[in-house]
């Protein structure tokens, strides 16, 4: 079960990273953790992205960190607004950093580092709007089976 691996302390660390990253950007970051991934990891991440209504942000600037713990699958997925402007290697760099930590069973640390990396890129392209930026998506981690 994902909640056996991601402890309450881990959850706090991950949510703190989301909040720190989002404090500098209008972008939105979510984390979804489940045990297994049926089929292709990017296809499953795309399903979760839609299920979490991440495509409904005003600037199409949502980022999903998807983890299937037992299947050792990970994907980071950005919405159309982000994909149009980030450097080609951007998602690969984040993925490499997260997986490097996951291999050492440092799940919260890996996710936190990846989230902060995404936040830096979001800050550059989607700066925080002091005149009414709202948190469009929950910062809480969503868990599957």
From TrEMBL:
Q: Which domain of life is it from?
A: Bacteria
Protein species of origin: Pontibacter diazotrophicus
Q: What is this protein called?
A: TPM domain-containing protein
Pfam family membership, one:
TPM_phosphatase
**What region holds the TPM domain?**
4-120
Q: Which InterPro entries match?
A: TPM_dom
